[in-house]
Sequence to fold (383 residues):
Amino acid sequence: MFSAKYASLDKQIREILENVEAPSEERVKGILEERKTERLRLSGVAELLKAGNDKTFDLLRDFMIDNFRKSEGNKLRNISPVYLSSYCVDTCGYCQFSANRKDTQRTRLSLSQLEEEVSAVIEEGNHVIEFTLATDPEFTPQKLVEYIAKTKELLGDREGSGILLCSDHLTQEAYRELKSAGLWGMVQWDETLDRTKYMKWHGQSPRKRHFEERMDNHDRAMSEGLEVATGVLFGLAEFRYDVLMQIAKARHLEEEYGRKPFVFGTPRIKPIGGRVLHPKHETNDRRYETALMVYKIAEPEIARWLQTRETPELNFKNILDGDVYTYRCGEVKPGGYKVNKKAVDSCKGGQFGVNELERRSFESMLRDTGFSVNYAWIKRPTQ
Ligand code: SF4
Fold:
């Protein structure tokens, strides 16, 4: 389990960060050359995360375009989030669903509403669906089994279709049952793995305060054969620490289970209920884009998940062949594609502020950038 390695990784990463210096252009070129023959060490990753002046940043940008964008035939993979519930017992200060927010318009999809909502997503042509829900005690693993089975039935035998789940952390037994019902993957943003910062944000949350238990959630899912998405929420702690720890976590999972997370999530804190937040560790665009690039340089087989928290313009500057993309997210509220589209106000009833695209505009932007998108991309091992 990752928690068994955490203390020594935390010490190692803090030491690296205390001593790291911003690299010169020559040094950046040297690191990029070295990674061709051996896996980039965490100390090298830390140096690249310091490549923040215009010249070193541009060097990284050019490297990404040269190495991870083809002259033609670049592909993205779409995921469509479907929110199941906005009822939550936890109290994260960056989220409109926090139990402390009394003005949130809360909703929970019944099974028949789920059917309507998922059908709307499938009719639009999207066949990879991510269930998203807050820490809602009504959504037990048994209830999730029903929702997954229903969605699987709606997706039918369409090749490449699949279901992912982003929920409260669960037991290994629960993941076993969910996988049998048809779940393909688990999504969890660790928020931050800086324990002190994590507890500052989540220490009062009934479920989320369990830092270690949550830290091992990826292990529990992978040990049951699920694929996983990992990542942090940028803005809670120092971004370099978070990126290094996520890379260390991805490497740990590969060592233990023989496969890596399929994607790094890339969320940043966004406005909630129309109010802009300014956390102490706010990650500006330069730092955010540096983090996106460094993830790919360090772990080229892992995609990055670009999504509606950011503007399409920023996303399209950064997309690379093989990345995951969400162009529409049902306004981050349960029923946002159809069932509650009009009934629930997106500002009060959505989890945070987003920038959605209609499918036609999304595809037109893709064409202009030399990309296309796969809406049913999940590959399963042949039996
Ligand atoms: S981030 Fe998740 S756990 Fe925290 S308040 Fe929002 S929905 Fe609840």
The two ends are 28 Å apart (CA to CA). The chain has a mean pLDDT of 96. The longest strand covers residues 80-85.
